[in-house]
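We include the entry.

. . .
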Amino acid sequence: MNAEKATDYLARVNWKTLVEWLTAEAILNRPADPVQFCRDLLGEKIAEHTGTNFRPDLITDWLRNCYTEATALVDEHGVIQGKKLETAQKSLPEQITELRRKIDGMQKLLDASSTIATLDPLQATENIVAETCRILSCDRATIFTVDRVTQELVLTVAEGAKNIRVPIGQGIAGTVAATGETINIVDAYSDSRFNSNADKTSGYRTTTILCMPIKSLDGTIVGVLQAINKKEGTFSTTDEEVMSMLATQAGIAIQNATLFRHAESARDKFRSLLDIIRAMQGEMGVNSLIFTITQRTIRVVDADRCTLYLVDNVHRGLFAMQGEVNIRISMDQGIAGMVASTGQTMNIPDAYENANFNQAIDKKTGYRTKAILCMPIKSDDKVIGVLQLINKLSGSGVFTLEDEDVMQIFLSIAGPILAESNLYEQIQGKSKGRGVEGVGGDVESMPARNGDYSTGAAAKKSLPGFSEQDEEDD
């Protein structure tokens, strides 16, 4: 039997028309991956004619229909919108390869589960990042946690980056946090949501990104897990499945670690509070007691500064000790004055947004007051003083309801003790003295007394919080 000539074979199977059809479809749709596009296109035709013999004339119909469809796909601007194709079914060898990848990924996940399970918050996130890089074979991984107070994503752990906050709704990670969707990007620079500033600063080049929400057990988004730069190719659907399981474990680990951290924090606060209460029940003088309160209270709520004022009902003022000078300010001004007058707690996230706060001293000293928790000290429902805490150092930087509850318990014990002190009784009977140099408003001085005032110079060094009285002046 004579072999068929190549030209005869190509003519018989209508090969020229087949190539022309594939070329026309590619030109019309401009696919990012033309090989995958041709495969999906041919897979679609094979599925349509499964079980029938090959007919070369059908290819001519495909070409004719291609041009007809092109006319229908033209939008109002004259641009042809490409049609969407279903991914072609994979061959058996490809399916086996994909299955092997999944099994390998599951094994790696099992190996990682024991590593991820830890109650230490930092260690848990570090382990998740390391396992994400290993299992997904990517260059970098990042975990962002959600800060509900500021509505931002906070970078908890990242390989090659630190100290980053991303507004929820902005960027790749911010979009994932806002929508809860998974984002798989083949080319980061072709995605308008990608912010390339970090790359420009570091010289790193981000190409592929796989980003997924981390959810708590109740479905609340508590963070975002992001993998960057697959070492070979792009992130696949199998990678998405594996990351989904990693994100689930991350959610559980982060939630457990957070609960553990809160429990430790509550224990430490209780111990610090107990120490203060024990000191209050001791035989120390009231001035040493005030010193102890202002120094130890900051540890209870993790504040930067603390000032304790006693109410002067005779002159409607507030009294505080600062070294060898005793300070008075008017109850008719400032945040402390407002709390003393109303008997209501003021928890201020940003002092500069409160009309009662005077910014002049911050500008003078260079200190930046942000969060303020100012609470009344009462005895028999009568306000006898004010405790003012400034700048929360941990968490979101804002004093919490838990901080208020803890301090309320403490102040309910401190109030009656301070009300019975000789110092409080003396304050109620004092007349006005000469003004304190450099302090404005209704601020007056009283000379230091015997006893604990003799250590006033040391106390002045140890009590930076007392300088906050100036911030209550106009």
User: Anything to note?
Assistant: The longest strand covers residues 382-392. Residues 147 and 454 are 47 Å apart (CA to CA). Confidence is low (pLDDT under 50) at residues 430-474. Residues 237-280 form the longest helix (44 residues).
